């Protein structure tokens, strides 16, 4: 009977150590991402500081909910921990999985916001700075092909050919 109480105590100890490491780790990662990601979000949202800060706060809340929920759901284990070796092995599996999930979620966020940023830059580049004037300069190095109207679909021939 005493031996089974020791096994149960070791399992509870492993759970407590897991929570004592994974919860502060999640908080630290969220704060670090929030602080360092602000510059990126301001760029994504074209300098709109208020909107970037609001999105940043929402991302932090979502990050906490997803990761702390995952940490809590992943707390349970079918195996009982009998000794220190078993506790370390269980903790390494659980913490390693939490770290991988944190990393994947971070990369997913960066990928999504980078796609938004690229799209906004493409829209900016698609709009010409001035409207086209449909005039081809006659004194420049490129002249239209003789006898063929210049429509913009064929490359102009350099003068002198």
Describe this structure in words.
The structure is a single chain. The chain has one domain. It is 69% helix and 2% strand. It has three helices and two strands. It has a two-stranded antiparallel sheet. Helix 1 runs parallel beside helix 3. The longest helix has 43 residues.
- Order of strands across the widest beta sheet? 1-2
Q: Provide the β-strand percentage band.
A: under 5%
For the CA atoms, what is the radius of gyration? 30 Å
Helical fraction: 55-70%
| Alpha-beta content class | mainly alpha
> What is the count of structural domains?
1
- Low-pLDDT residue intervals, each spanning 5 or more residues: none
On the 0 to 100 scale, the average pLDDT is 78
Number of helices: 3
Overall, the morphology is elongated
Transmembrane segments: 12-34, 54-75, 95-113
Keywords: Membrane, Transmembrane, Transmembrane helix
Main attributes?
3 helices, mainly alpha, 161 residues, single chain
Q: In terms of topology, how is this protein built?
A:
Elements: H1 2-44, H2 49-73, H3 84-126, E1 142-143, E2 157-158
Short précis:
The chain has 161 residues and is mostly helical.
